[in-house]
Amino acid sequence: MSYSLTEIIKHTSIYSFGRLASKAIGFLLIPLYTRFLTPEDYGVVEMLTMFIALSGIVIQGGISAAIFKFYNECKSKIEQDELICTILVFIFSLSLLFCVCTSLLSPTISLIFLKTEDFSFYVVLMVVSFFFSTIANVPETYLMAEKKSKIFTLISLATLVINLGFNIYAVAILNLGIEGILYASVAARVFNNILLFSVFLNKVSFKLKFNKLKQVLSFSIPMIPAELGLFVYAYVDRFFLTHMSDLQSVGIYSLGYKFAFMISMLLVQPFMQIWQQKMYEIKKDEDAAIKFGKMFTYLFAFVLFAALFMSIFIKDTIAIMAAPEFISAWRVVPIIAFSYVFKSMYLFFQMGMFFNSKTSYLSYIALLGALISICMNYLLVPHLKELGAAFAILISTISIAAITLFVSQRLYKIKLEFLELFKIIMLGSFLFFFYINISIEFPFISIMVKLSSIPVIFFLIRVFNVCNCKAFSFSKLIDSRY
Question: Which Pfam families match (predicted)?
Fold first, then answer.
């Protein structure tokens, strides 16, 4: 079965916009937060977010990936409805039990993550928001499996508007600080659930068949150690900064990380959501190995140049958007942004494990990545603080990407375009070192100067024929099947 590159780009673009709407609230509120919160307050919010991320792994595991896999294998609409509804009931029950237990233990959790029991009420509010976020994941995944990208985006936009309004009112008008942020989060999550389930219940017949749950869990549970390993590798830096530095360092680092995370939110995650479904279709083609190699080249190029653009403009952007005490956050952004280039490589080459049902390999790789991250943070954070944490995540990401590529190529070999990848790396490196040395005191002028030189980048891309751009045209993208 052939596939259309246009279809993947189309849905990735729409989901990217939808994900931006649903996840960009923290980014859009940076000017508000950095003026009404101290770096220490920002650090508290980040550590609470870290706890919720860990909770999400425990409760959800690889459920989303399992839905994509088994939903496509269902032979009828009835089977699909049974699968989705059974998973929803399971997630709802488990989440409710978890949240009740966690609320009772909130003083202990506050002590572990924030070195004091004073923030236990914040933990309870965060857990309530987490409950609504978790159960919303099932209808969201259903919309993606059904390729209802426009509905997904409209709901995300509506939630964004409500969330912005609640945050501005609670933080800027009522001056509730961190508590206002958490109240706004709960209210926005409830609103989001109302919208999602109004669509979900209208399209899905409520049917249960718990023998399907065994298949789902047998696929997803082996992925939980992998997710935990990835959590440690991605979040342990905040823990080391909290206990080996201070919450101010956590706040500054977290602001920089939030900017760099836009690479993942806008490109990597939306692509992978579509790719997890399309790769099984492409595998059936005779020339699948070539198609996989070409798609990786495009993904690598897009993410690398996105990280480059982020690095070029980040110092000026933070100077404009954030309060002066947060300006040093720009230093960690290029390091973390380029780590997402390797993160995309790691996620892409998991296909070898998925095709051969070797998901346990992902656990070994992720746990090794976590170990490397712990070691690097232990060595670097005491001396370099925020920069040490950034370099630690870059080193650990490169490590797991290289190992995943090595293992995947032995399970399912694809034809990599080494010449194209080399040209992308060389051009990207040249442009990075060229722009990083441009220093203009006034942010707006600096941005205008850099923007005026952007056409030179596209000229160099065409001169060096990166990704075969001379033979690539919009009409070919629309008409051809890759």
Answer: Polysacc_synt_3
